Amino acid sequence: MRICVFTLGCKVNQSESDSLIKDLKSLGHEVVDELSFCDLYIVNTCAVTGEAEKKSRQTYARILAINPNAKIIYTGCASQKDPESFAKKSDSVLVTGTFNKGEIISLLDKTGLSLFPESKAFEELSTPESLRTRTYV
């Protein structure tokens, strides 16, 4: 499966996306981090500013312009803050918010729309395979 992990926002989002990319590649998926034609899109949203939230919501239209039949998973701060606005998008298959990002891999075959309940538990993700020249602490 060809999967796009598209990241908006901070270095924490980038690190978490890098972990997802590593895990998806280890399962044999072809993974890209820029918007292009894919079977599945994982959008790591941001809500640090109003503009970041707006860009997170606009990603939906950008993806549909590339692939009208796209399946989209939303995760991150903006989808945590307002999950209903992301869930009502007809092509959404999963909305996770900031928690349960580590569960995305195990839920790839899930159909329909799901909203995770908010959890405060510490979530351990795999160590990212850095795509950057600087590493994360």
Largest sheet, if any? 5 strands, parallel
Per DSSP, the total helix count is: 4
Widest sheet: strand order?
A: 2-1-3-4-5
Shape: globular
Helix vs. strand class: alpha/beta
N- to C-terminal distance: 31 Å
Rg of Cα set: 14 Å
Q: Strand tally, please?
A: 5
The helix-strand sequence is EHEEHEHHE
Low-confidence stretches: 111-120
Arithmetic mean pLDDT: 80
Beta-strand percent range: 15-25%
Considering DSSP H and I runs of 4 or more, what fraction of the residues is helical?
Answer: 25-40%
Description:
There is one protein chain. With 137 residues, this protein is an alpha/beta fold. 31% of the residues lie in helices and 20% in strands. A 5-stranded parallel β-sheet has the order 2-1-3-4-5, with helices on both faces. The longest helix is centred in the middle third of the chain and has 17 residues, at 50-66. The radius of gyration is 14 Å and the shape is globular. Mean pLDDT is 80; it is low at 111-120.
